[in-house]
From TrEMBL:
<comment type="function">
    <text>Pyridoxal 5'-phosphate (PLP)-binding protein, which is involved in PLP homeostasis.</text>
</comment>
<comment type="similarity">
    <text>Belongs to the pyridoxal phosphate-binding protein YggS/PROSC family.</text>
</comment>
<dbReference type="InterPro" id="IPR001608">
    <property type="entry name" value="Ala_racemase_N"/>
</dbReference>
<dbReference type="Pfam" id="PF01168">
    <property type="entry name" value="Ala_racemase_N"/>
</dbReference>
<protein>
    <recommendedName>
        <fullName>Pyridoxal phosphate homeostasis protein</fullName>
    </recommendedName>
</protein>
<dbReference type="GO" id="GO:0030170">
    <property type="term" value="F:pyridoxal phosphate binding"/>
</dbReference>
<feature type="modified residue" description="N6-(pyridoxal phosphate)lysine">
    <location>
        <position position="35"/>
    </location>
</feature>
<dbReference type="InterPro" id="IPR029066">
    <property type="entry name" value="PLP-binding_barrel"/>
</dbReference>
<dbReference type="InterPro" id="IPR011078">
    <property type="entry name" value="PyrdxlP_homeostasis"/>
</dbReference>
<keyword id="KW-0663">Pyridoxal phosphate</keyword>
<feature type="domain" description="Alanine racemase N-terminal">
    <location>
        <begin position="14"/>
        <end position="229"/>
    </location>
</feature>
Amino acid sequence: MSIQHNLSEIHQQIADCCQQTNRTLGSVKLLAVSKTKSLAAIEEAIQAGQQAFGENYVQEGVEKIQYFQAKNVNLEWHFIGPLQSNKSRLVAEHFDWIETVDRLKIAARLSQQRPTALAPLNVLIQINISAETSKSGIAANELLPLAEKIVALPNLRLRGLMAIPQDSDDPAVQQQAFSRMQQLFRQLQLALPEQQIDTLSLGMSGDMAMAIKCGSTQVRIGTAIFGARN
């Protein structure tokens, strides 16, 4: 199947999920995870109307961003991988969003390194909602103290939360993690009413429906758009 066909299918699935859960059509954004994918594949997705892309590897992402900027193609780029301190400048200088902030040190570096000519860098705090030792993210009880420090940084804009729950085919397990994330998202909105807390980045190919049911505003889809890894 073509990338255009795949994107059409996913948009229809998102629309169906929204209808089934009384969500407003258009309330869930599709982030195309383009890590390891070729420029040609991304161009095909762009031609099909996709404008927001997620990258896990800093250098690969920067090269893609620069390629499309040189062609005057206006896209939205999200960094969605773990970030080491020595790579923070590249993210601050090139990406529009980072979804994996889990330390004040990284947030402070990103704010300091963000060029003032650019809009503030949009930030999501990553929550390790399933308490997996193999995954990044903070514990739920660390959220508000970190959020309050991030909103004080001048060149960042806190927009919400991101999580990668434990992989499970069990709807009950999925729902437990996603419902907890929805609670934390609402808690953050109530604690910081003056901030634009509008993004809950939850759900991938296998658990997208449950994520949307539990309030996700952005799903991150890779393989179902581009096919298996190259």
